[in-house]
Amino acid sequence: AACTPVACRCDHTPLPGPPAGHWPLPLSRRRREMKSNKEQRSAVFVILFALITILILYSSSSANEVFHYGSLRGRTRRPVNLRKWSITDGYIPILGNKTLPSRCGQCVIVTSSSHLLGTKLGPEIERAECTIRMNDAPTTGYSADVGNKTTFRVVAHSSVFHVLRRPQEFVNRTPETVFIFWGPPNKMQKPQGSLVRVIQRAGLVFPNMEAYAISLSRMRQFDDLFRSETGKDREKSHSWLSTGWFTMVIAVELCDHVHVYGMVPPDYCSLRPHLQRMPYHYYEPKGPDECVTYIQNENSRKGNHHRFITEKRVFSSWAQLYGITFSHPSWT
């Protein structure tokens, strides 16, 4: 309402101004300061996020990467004597109630390496007291170089069907063969589709077939052995022990002396001429390159892989201890 002399008294006192030195900043300057403050807060958040990420990665790396593969931790105690492991506790008969034969004087391991092609080692391999082969490496068509005799065949869970689908090659051709199957419990003994049951069914068709599975307690021993020799936990490093690892340990358990044909030394791939290609398996000429396979598996940090080169370093450390020798190529 309008101010009248009767209704009210008008106050003509001027409104107080801002205190001295505190006049409002120009709008453009205030906007610049607000933008600057926002950028500072964003920078702080980015730095904090980066620090947290680094801490997470460092913690993960510390937990899973005890040392770089390709080197071995120095032993802090005397190595396990593999020849004192109990044979009866380690290998469970799948067919019948037999016990795994416990002793061979001289054994040879015939690897699946293409280094054996053209060697004409067949007759020499045939003369060995015990011959050990791996997975589904055939002898038909290659006997001049790798022989036929097969005393033991160590087979991974992933190769069971490859072997059983070719009984003429792997069962009938060498009926004296003793099969040793290895695999994690969830593969070998799972309720539905157990691989042990598959092998047992094969035994009904081939009654002379002799087969064993590595026991759960022995599987743990294989893991513990790898950890004690390398300082590396297999599971935490997302790796699987190779069939070569199982085969070498079994050979040391069963044999007084072991000679290995076709296994390359641990430093082979770092010294090999880059243009020389060697198939990983002698029976797969168009298969993957040997060194590419070794290096990719050794360096991979994702998924499940084999640490072939690390395993070979362990084998090298066992050579003098257990009387293991290597040829084609030689390790000396």
UniProtKB/TrEMBL annotation:
It is found in: Golgi apparatus membrane. One of its GO terms (cellular component) is Golgi membrane. Coiled coil: none annotated. The chain crosses the membrane at residues 42-59. GO terms for biological process: cell-cell recognition; ceramide metabolic process; glycosphingolipid biosynthetic process. InterPro entries: Glyco_trans_29, GT29-like_sf. Pfam families: Glyco_transf_29. The keyword Membrane applies. The keyword Repeat does not apply. GO terms for molecular function: sialyltransferase activity. It is a single-pass type II membrane protein. Its main location: Golgi. Keywords: Disulfide bond, Glycoprotein, Glycosyltransferase, Golgi apparatus, Lipid metabolism, Membrane, Sialic acid, Signal-anchor, Transferase, Transmembrane, Transmembrane helix. It catalyses: 3-O-[alpha-Neu5Ac-(2->3)-beta-D-Gal-(1->3)-alpha-D-GalNAc]-L-Ser-[protein] + CMP-N-acetyl-beta-neuraminate = a 3-O-{alpha-Neu5Ac-(2->3)-beta-D-Gal-(1->3)-[alpha-Neu5Ac-(2->6)]-alpha-D-GalNAc}-L-seryl-[protein] + CMP + H(+); 3-O-[alpha-Neu5Ac-(2->3)-beta-D-Gal-(1->3)-alpha-D-GalNAc]-L-Thr-[protein] + CMP-N-acetyl-beta-neuraminate = a 3-O-{alpha-Neu5Ac-(2->3)-beta-D-Gal-(1->3)-[alpha-Neu5Ac-(2->6)]-alpha-D-GalNAc}-L-threonyl-[protein] + CMP + H(+); a globoside MSGG + CMP-N-acetyl-beta-neuraminate = a globoside DSGG + CMP + H(+); a ganglioside GM1b (d18:1(4E)) + CMP-N-acetyl-beta-neuraminate = a ganglioside GD1alpha (d18:1(4E)) + CMP + H(+). Belongs to the glycosyltransferase 29 family. This is Alpha-N-acetylgalactosaminide alpha-2,6-sialyltransferase 6.
